Each structure stands twice: as structure tokens, then as C-alpha cells.
């Protein structure tokens, strides 16, 4: 309720608030979160306002949709963004945003929501550019699928947007280090199997072909990006709703997301550091997680990672994840 009230206040301030009033609201919300929030993670490392140190902090979550109509207020988007303010993130990345970013009003309003909570930064969005939802959906600016990535003002001068997928499957950006090495930050949404007329699977099949497999196609395209990054001696962080679990005992012949990790040279950061996670990351699924933060193996000594508890993320059916990356890994001279 506090976050919802704060979100409504922030949205109102977009219309009639001074920067000072917005900052005051941020400070009040941060103080409430710091004093009342339970920081015990569901699995992995603990993330608090005081243990960030000099790390780059990324918060990832399947948002289960941001605001989806330009005819209504944007408190849902703002409350989603504000939910993690006490953790002082350097980057917020969301999958399944369900927004038609091709509408200029929607894009501008979303940028204003991020600016109101965190100040000026860099926002990168991906949606299916081959499908226009207007007239086909109860909300004229909703579009199942899509992702977005935001970085704060301090990281903005160091970031380059590299890949914004035309099907809205993923967005990729490059965070440059001082020694020539770089960190590729990728957010992706892999569709769940569905034959619904407006489903993500159906959208992508309309472009890829009726006999295509969009779930495999995204893995193949992501592998090309990850492999290119590794050939350049860069490292990769891939935040992804894979809509698939990884078994505790890996089979000899890997398929799906496990085969992708082996072929792309990535590891599941959470299970690598903290063992197999036996609890779900989505309230609609059972067993182990379907959301992951995959990373280059070279990053493992330099990171902290955890699945956050319900109080630390936004109001979604998926739990949020946190990852801290030590700046030291971006200061190493690339191998020759």
C-alpha cells in the first residue's frame, strides 16, 4: 500500500510537482523500506541498501506487464519502478513488459516514470515491430511480450545500445570498462508454448513462419550475440524468463535452455554460487525457477546474486533477482 501510494504521488508530481518534492518523496520511501523491509532472500545472497559497496547493482524481474493504455494513469509502471528504490540499483531490467513501445506517447510516459523515481538515465525498449495491437486488443497499446532495460545517470555515459530485437524478444547493451573490456547486459523473454491468437508465440510465428519454433529461434539468436561478445574478450550478463526449468542432475544429452548455456558458454549464476534452487521463481509454476541470470564463467568470482523475497520486488507473479558485479572485473586488461 505504501508503494502504491508513493507511485500515485510520483505520477501526480509529473504533472504538478517540483524536483524538490519528487526527491523528498523518494527519500521518504527509501527510509520506510530501509526500516521495515525483510531482506532475507528466497535463495542466494542478501541485497540491502548498505551492502552495495562499489558494485554495479542490477535488479531483474518479469514485470507481468507495465501500464498498457495511454488513456489511463501510469501508477502501475511507477510503482514497479519504485519498488526497488531502497536497493539503489544501477540498472533495472524487465521482461514481459506487454507494452506497445511503438506508440510515442507510451514510450515518453514510461521514460517520465523512470525519470521521476531515479532521475535521467538511459532507457532501451524492445517490442514486436511487425504487429500493431490497436483494434485487436482490449487495451489499444498492450502487446504481449517485450523487454526494457534502464541504467542510471552514472552508467549512462558508459553504455551503448547494441541489439534491440525487432520481435521484442531481447534487448542488449554494452557497459564499457576503463581498460577496454566491456560487460554485455541482455534482457530476454522466451515465449511460453501457446496457440492463442495474440500470444507471443503466435506473434513470432507470423513472422518466422508457421512451422518455426520461436522458443528455439530466440536461443539461436542469443547464442550468436553471446559468442561474439566472448570472442571480443567481453563478459555477459543475460537476465531471462526462459519458461523452462533446469534439472538438478543435468542429462548427458542437453536440450533447450541447458543446451543453450553449454553452446553459448554461460552458467546459471544462482545455482553455480549457491547450489540448485529447489523453489519456484513464478507463482504460476512449481519446482525450480524459470527465471535466470546467466553469466560468463569469468564473472563468477566477481558477483553476488540472489532471488529476492516478495517484499523486495514489484507486484508481479514472478520474483525479482539481484546481481552485484564488482567493478574490478571491468578494469582487467583483456586477454590477447
Structural notes for this entry:
With about 325 residues, the protein is α+β, with helices and mostly antiparallel strands. The strands form two sheets. The chain has a seven-stranded mixed β-sheet with strand order 1-12-13-2-3-5-4. The chain has a six-stranded mixed β-sheet with strand order 6-7-8-9-11-10. Helix 3 packs parallel to helix 4 and helix 6 packs parallel to helix 7. It is globular and about 45 Å long. The termini are far apart.
| Share of β-strand residues | 15-25%
Label the structural class. alpha+beta
Distance between the termini: 53 Å
Poorly predicted runs of 5 or more residues: 14-23, 31-36
Placed side by side, the strands forming the largest sheet appear as 1-12-13-2-3-5-4
The largest pleated sheet is described as:
7 strands, mixed
Question: Roughly how many Å is the radius of gyration?
Answer: 19 Å
State the helical fraction.
25-40%
Notable characteristics:
336 residues; alpha+beta; 8 helices
Report a brief summary of the structure:
By secondary structure, the chain is an alpha+beta fold. It has helices at 2-16, 19-36, 75-82, 104-118, 200-208, 214-231, 256-264, 269-274, and strands spanning 43-44, 55-62, 91-95, 122-126, 147-151, 159-164, 170-176, 182-189, 235-241, 267-268, 291-295, 303-307, 321-326.
